[in-house]
Amino acid sequence: MILNCLNFTILHEIKQKTIMDLIYFILIGALAGFIAEKVLKTDMGLLMNIVLGVIGGFVGGWIFSLLNLDLGGGIIGSLIAAIAGAILVLFVFKKLKSLKK
What we know:
The protein is mainly α and 101 residues long. It has one domain. The protein is built from three helices and no strands. Helix 1 crosses helix 3.
């Protein structure tokens, strides 16, 4: 009985942490996408800002790891990597879009 209560408590904490991580991930993505949008002077809307920021977070994290740059694991490091990646992704997207015209 006590073991079941402990398992439930642990699973509940993991679930709460996962939900908070997801919210954190979306907020960082939205902010990074918004900043990238303003830097490159485009207007894409909230949903595309979130998508751009999330993709940018992966790209920025990957590039910084390739360069052996450690930005720390905090919110500032995550935001810097996401902004840099989002700017790069948006820049490439705009260039590819202009080639099709």
